[in-house]
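Example with several molecule types.
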Amino acid sequence: DIVLTQSPALAVSLGQRATISCRASQSVSTSSYNLMHWYQQKPGQQPKLLIYDASNLASSIPARFSGSGSGTDFTLTINPVQADDIATYYCQQSRELPYTFGAGTKLELK
Amino acid sequence: EVQLVESGGGLVQPGRSMKLSCAASGFTFNNYDMAWVCQAPKKGLEWVATISYDGSSTYYRDSVKGRFTISRDNAKSTLYLQMDSLRSEDTATYYCARICGYLDYFDYWGQGVMVTVSS
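Resulting structure tokens for the full complex:
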């Protein structure tokens, strides 16, 4: 299985930049796609898609969210962080079955 | 508006069965692969199973193979998860999710249904 490693938590101040990383145990990229996706989950809610194919913004997601990366290293950036962004963020790979998620990074206020 | 509404969860004893349903609306159900994803209490997300748009192909994580069955009724726009031989470690919130295209990300999620396996 492809293991996705995320830092457990990140503390950030409102209005600052947050950078959340996800490292895969093997490449999740093909010649055409970077099969890494990002989700936001707030307490008591279902996950919400933020970014697909590493860098494509999902529908209705604010432009302060962006994604980058290829191969095994990927990043979700939130700039500037707003109060509504306090949540847990998960990466997910669809390069091969079983599809796997990172353990999540909890974004906290500094 | 895309909506996915799960039902059928609750408390069940170990070794027993439970069937979850997910009613879909707001999109052409039979055009999309669908999946179940679970989340144990205070834990992360875990993919459980996927079914192709026409039901002809199914895929499972190893820990549920032979115990869980994903199925769909396209005439009713409904996804199912039959869970047999339940174990305490199956305790989780189960989400149904729509799979988008060939990149296989989950673009819409239901609100989730809790399954508790305990005696």
